[in-house]
Amino acid sequence: MDENSNLYKIRHSMAHVLAQAVQEVYPKVKLGFGPPIETGFFYDFDFSEEEFSEDKLKEIEKRMRKIIGRKQEFLYSETDLDGAVAKLEELGEGDYKIENVRNLHSRGVEKFSFYENGKFTDLCEGPHVPDTGALPAKAFKLDRVAGAYWLGSEKNKQLTRIYALCYETPEELQEFLERRRIAEQFDHKKLGKELDIYHIDDMVGKGLPLWLPNGTAIRDEIEKYANEMEFRYGYKRVSTPHIAKEELYLTSGHLPHYADSMFPPMEVKEHDNDECTEKFYLKAMNCPHHHLIFKSRPHSYRDLPLRYAEYGTCYRYEKSGELSGLLRVRCMTMNDAHIYMSLDQFESEFRRTMEMYKEFYDTFKLTQYSFRLSVRDDSEKFVGDPALWAKAEALLAKVMDEMEIPYYIGEGEAAFYGPKIDIQFKNLMGREETVSTIQVDFQSGDKFDLKFVDAEGDDQVPVIMHRAPLSTHERFISFLLEYYGGAFPTWCAPVQVCMLPVQESCLEYTNALADELTGDFFRVEVDNSNNTFNKKIRTNTKRKIPMLLIIGEKEVAEGTLTVRRYGSRDQITIPREEFIQSFKAEVKERKML
Ligand code: ATP
Ligand code: ZN
Ligand code: ZN
Fold first, then answer.
1. ipTM value of the model?
2. Which of 318, 382, 440, 472 to mutate to test the pocket of ligand 1 (most atoms within 8 A of CB)?
3. pLDDT of 94-103, one tens digit each?
4. Pocket residues: Cβ below 6 A from ligand 1
5. How far is Cα 322 from Cα 382, in angstroms, rounded to an integer?
């Protein structure tokens, strides 16, 4: 946040007002830090001499509004270390600020500034609004309370952090609250449970989702679509084992560079008295396996570009604190492919790949994305010849420029073996996630001694492109769940059609239609529970099934059915055959209505 913006000044000044109000209610409170944050501000308090109760938040908020009403001016003063310590001792706000002043002094700070408003004084650098009367009394709200260690270290005392939301206008605060309400309602973990998409069981382990039938139906549809698309774009499908010997990852460089993100090896002896053990690793990437497929046969320039695709399952030992529903997991199935080509084919192949990405995004109606050119920084994790790195980075930038695709640079975001284009999607709360990626790799060809014979009959090393437009099933479906609010388009919805026979006598007609559609591999259900008709509508609407078909005696007599689409109150009655045709077309063309 820009420190000179009005919003920053408001949030910052408001933190003083919060501390002042808390002091009025709890005179013995000791003060920690109280900075502005993305959605407002917080302040850390040590209440150890008094019992703090969240019930008091309302009262504190009221007092804050009174302080705002008093239009207290923010008055500046400054002093040296001794003066600051003396002043803080006199204020009796506890030792935290004194410790802070001494720390700052040891880092060369000589002058300390204070701001006084009303009876409250705080060690602070500003900037503030001129007086508390300039603060928006109706655009803030004390939001929640959490524990926070002093200076963020577990070795220190835990303080009580009061978070507040704060905007310039009441409308902006309302807007934020509404956005948050929707985000909570559409949270993929919540929807994943309600819609029976996946389950994480402690007995299997953290970050290892079990996909339920509904989730698996979505995965299968996405995978089928990717296979068709890749077939059209000239990819060949391959399949590879989930594990490999240590040697493979030593060759690829994953060991030791990526070892932290891999599960530890399995050490195996074939016979008890064998001298040697073999070490196997679960694969964290599909690339090395694909490189060996390339290497297993000779290739001529005429075969290139050669595109190997696999929805490959990988395992990464992500830190447990970073695991989150399906967004970040430890077992993931990736929409992966590796393209082997000569350098002069790179540009046109990159264009084709971008075209394919666009086709995917259009089908899913994904519109909010941006491109990040992820390059290395000076960290040691980026391996290989700096000249090759520079060449690869320049190549990606050149192609992006020529295609007039706007992008920004992400320093230090590259893969350890090369730069990449990451495609970032905004989620409901505006947070960005990497969904798709394209990487250019000038290194693996050499490491694996890959070759093709060029037109002159000489051996050449191929350039490799790694690409994953649809990410992993896990991350992509977590994103789609939130993006669609759980209401998937008909073609990939777990249950596409649910039929509701109104009377017993309609069952035969209903079942015949269900059988016909099931026979054509559509996912249909008949709700012949004992529920009342209205309850059937309600429960199946909650399941976010795209289409409910209502079949009563009138429909049976006329050979029609009544269609009610999710999210619409209207319903239309159409002839049976007309429905079947339009439904099939909608699914086949993967339409989103
Ligand atoms: P990140 O920076 O998000 O950890 P990465 O750069 O390590 O990802 P890649 O190796 O490029 O990821 O993997 C390809 C794609 O797989 C990523 O763009 C991302 O969408 C997805 N992905 C990576 N790690 C995970 C994970 N732990 N869980 C789910 N999906 C993941
Ligand atoms: Zn201040
Ligand atoms: Zn790869």
1. 0.93
2. 472
3. 899 999 999 9
4. 316, 318, 328-329, 332, 334, 434-435, 437, 468, 471-472, 474-475
5. 22
